[in-house]
Amino acid sequence: MHKIYFATGNPNKLREAKNILGEVGYEVEQLDCEYPELQADDLETISAYGARWCADRLDRDVMVDDSGIFIETLNGFPGPYSRYVEDHLGNRKVLKLMEGETNRRAVFSTVVGFCRPGGEPRTFTGEVVGTISFEERGTHGFGYDPIFLYEGRTFGELDDFKKNRISHRGNAMRKFAQWLELDPR
Ligand code: ITT
Fold it and tell me: pLDDT tens digits, residue range 85-99?
């Protein structure tokens, strides 16, 4: 079975990646490679930078995943700052920020970055459009899942299997796997 090395410190992402890529025939192994946090406005730049940095440093093919939630009425905030906002504010305060807002549209996005040592990084973007709920719901998932509503249920109310079928991460990682199939090397 072909192996994909995934540089992430997030065990939830790792579990999801193992399921998503496992279904299409890949084994996923976690790599310990913390790349410097680039201050950039878009996930593509951060993801490409991280993949290249880890591939060159570890001298092997590396996949990374940079994700964020973009809330329309907040002009895309927190977007690339999603980790910082989760760590310092959390879902309750995000809901507070959204009090009285009628436009609750939000896009969840994952950009998978992949790079070979000395090579150019490639990126694969997956998105899902939903809304921000009025309260936290569900015990599955992690991070923003309990406040991201999709077709009447929050991601926190979906088990991994259901989430992966429709999620930003599922879409991005399946795109990446398709490209790997065709990649002549
Ligand atoms: P890495 O080590 O892979 O960088 P991270 O947790 O720092 O892990 P990100 O910067 O990509 O990853 O994540 C941004 C934030 O968005 C972070 O707070 C995550 O918990 C959250 N997040 C990412 N994917 C999510 C998902 O599928 N559902 C809910 N929250 C998610």
Answer: 999 999 999 999 999
Domain count along the chain: 1
In order, the DSSP letters of 63-119 are EEEEEEEEEGGGTT-BGGGHHHHHHHT-HHHHHHHTTT-S--EEEEEEEEEEE-TTS
Q: Could you tell me the pTM of the whole model?
A: 0.96
Q: Which of 5, 12, 13 to mutate to test the pocket of ligand 1 (most atoms within 8 A of CB)?
A: 13
Q: Return the CATH number at 61.
A: 3.90.950.10
Is the Cβ atom of 142 under 6 angstroms away from ligand 1? yes
CA–centroid distance, residue 11 to ligand 1 (Å): 10
The answer to whether residues 156 and 101 touch, using CB atoms and an 8 Å cutoff, is no
Give the residue-averaged pLDDT of 19-30.
97
Range of 19's domain? 2-182
Residue in 87, 109, 127, 144 to alter for ligand 1 test, most ligand atoms within 8 A of Cβ: 144
Each residue's pLDDT tens digit, 29-75: 999 998 887 888 899 999 999 999 999 999 999 999 999 999 999 99
